[in-house]
Design goal:
Chain lengths: ~140, ~400
């Protein structure tokens, strides 16, 4: 499996191809959102909603072989696309890897300019929640 | 007389720029309008030549600033045809104007069991101050329902009115849908049972001719920044008879007549309600915005904006997946809509990528959105400097966006 950094570099390269064209970049993000695996309906609960996002985001996890699988959904396609990028980078990793991860691809692809400051805050809230899950799993694994 | 829109556009420097590589199309005028050069010049001119604190200075600059400040009060009085300029109070904005009434009038005249009536169309700023008051006073907040087109149900309003109703606080024009409410009738009916009426004029004063004496409203709240004026300035009109018997809203300088540690006596209206150094520069510059409006003529502005609304209804209406929200018979130049299968925020971001500025979301009217069963809408709102060609360009972008989910 490629490292977190490898995947981030891949994403940076993909976005570099799109260049400064904001419209194509957004279409691309929405397309990525469309490819997100279906979110389990039984997990669509109030407690799985991430606070601090302007659009609705549901996030939950499964543990497989001491690795975290993230499952997420949103009511907006752009947000779904953003989550799919985070899942691509972080899902299937150990809690330690996730906690250590420096997600520099977000700045490097100029996400702030693409999605605006309000959504950037939402993205930070998503990352925080993903890391909180990792912290909880790590604590559980260390017991 | 048709307006020369190209000439008008030249007066607004902000319009002449590119956003995301496309010429800016500014359709977020219900949130705030752009400012003509004359307003900008007045702002800098004040700081360059006249800056000083008003009303108490013995020097020339203070006298000049005071004169200009009070000239705007006179200008606002004429703009809404108030009986006298003392009935015009400067505030921070519509929100503060409503809070002033809820707090001052409410504190004095509303007691346990009394009733306050608002409508489903209200902006949060005309809901929350009354909720706070009703909670404090154990009063009852009643809400006039609407139909699916976004129109107030007048019969239901009459049923809500009782001898316990102390104030009806109602939006003149809905910010989210553009509906023009039949406020003259509402005011008449409220007055018949002795209730006072506050009009939230944030979205009406820039589109409709306002004559407070003809409407006979007791209060009118609106904001300068939606009228081509500066941000941070609002107006509260109130009838003298009411303003005089209402307690001050905030304490401080300017609003007093005489202060001793034992007792303070208050200044006359309007100064009683303008504690502290006011927003002098913005008040002075606002007169230029009023001059701009009167130089064009409100009826000419309205005619142009109505044409834009018709044009947008026709051209957006042909887009597959376009769902208009709010189809009242009487509307100002606001078009709220959704695209089938798409979240309004996504539509807004994609329009922005095309240089088109619209508003998306619940427009600070969450109860209205709940009533309509929607999470939000996309809202395009047109102003005097907008053109049919801009609407055509938005229609092209919108059709492309809608196609993603409406093949």
């Amino acid at each position: 499996m490629s490292s977190i950094q490898d995947i981030q570099d891949q994403i940076i390269e993909e976005f570099a191809i799109l260049g400064d064209d904001k419209e194509s970049t957004i279409y691309y993000i929405m397309e990525l959102g469309g490819q997100l695996p279906k979110f389990p309906e039984e997990e669509r609960l109030e407690e799985n909603i991430i606070k601090g996002c302007q659009s609705k985001v549901w996030l939950t996890t499964r543990e497989e072989d001491d690795r975290i699988q993230y499952l997420a959904d949103s009511n907006t396609d752009i947000t779904k696309g953003l989550i799919s990028l985070l899942i691509r980078v972080l899902s299937g990793r150990t809690p330690q890897e996730i906690l250590k991860a420096d997600l520099d691809f977000i700045d490097k692809i100029g996400m702030g300019n693409i999605i605006g400051s309000q959504r950037s805050n939402g993205l930070s809230a998503m990352i925080k929640q993903m890391k909180l899950y990792a912290l909880a799993y790590q604590a559980k694994q260390n017991v | 007389m048709p307006l020369n829109i190209e000439k008008i556009r030249k007066m607004f420097p902000v319009l002449h720029q590119e956003v995301n590589g496309k010429p800016l199309i500014y359709f977020d005028n219900a949130a705030t309008t752009q400012k003509p050069q004359s307003v900008l010049d007045s702002l800098t001119g004040y700081y360059e030549h006249d800056n000083s604190n008003i009303h108490r200075g013995a020097h020339t600059l203070a006298d000049r600033a005071t004169r200009h400040y009070e000239e705007t009060r006179e200008g606002v009085k004429n703009f809404i045809n108030a009986n006298e300029s003392a009935e015009i109070i400067f505030t921070k904005g519509t929100t503060e104007s409503i809070n002033l009434v809820a707090s001052s009038f409410g504190r004095k005249f509303i007691t346990k069991g009394d009733e306050v009536i608002i409508s489903t169309l209200e902006h949060h700023s005309n809901i929350v101050p009354w909720q706070m008051l009703c909670e404090e006073k154990e009063a009852i907040l009643k809400v006039i329902p609407i139909n699916d087109k976004g129109e107030i149900l007048l019969d239901e309003f009459e049923n809500l009115l009782t001898e316990k109703t102390k104030i009806v606080s109602i939006v003149h024009v809905s910010n989210a849908l553009g509906t023009i409410n039949p406020v003259k009738e509402i005011i008449k009916k409220a007055h018949q049972i002795g209730a006072k009426v506050l009009l939230d004029g944030a979205q009406s004063t820039n589109h409709l001719d306002i004559d407070v004496q003809d409407l006979d409203c007791d209060f009118l709240a609106f904001s300068a920044h939606k009228l081509y004026g500066p941000t941070g300035l609002g107006i509260l009109y109130g009838k003298r008879s009411l303003l005089e018997i209402m307690p001050p809203y905030q304490g401080g300088g300017e609003m007093i007549k005489e202060v001793t540690f034992a007792k303070t006596t208050y200044n006359e209206i309007p100064f009683k309600f303008e504690a502290g150094t006011p927003n002098i520069a913005d008040v002075i510059a606002f007169q230029k915005a009023l001059d701009f409006i009167s130089s064009l003529g409100k009826s000419n502005i309205k005619r142009h904006e109505d044409e834009l609304l018709d044009h947008a209804n026709n051209s957006f209406g042909q887009i597959n997946g376009f769902v208009p929200v709010g189809t009242a018979a009487e509307k100002v130049s606001v078009i709220s809509f959704n695209i089938n299968g798409m979240h309004p925020f996504d539509v807004g971001v994609m329009l922005d990528a095309n240089g088109i500025a619209v508003r998306t979301g619940h427009h600070c009217t969450q109860p209205l959105m709940q009533r309509l069963g929607l999470e939000g809408t996309v809202r395009a709102s047109f102003s005097v400097y907008n053109t049919k060609s801009e609407i055509d360009q938005m229609a092209v972008s919108l059709a492309k966006i809608a196609k993603i989910k409406n093949k």
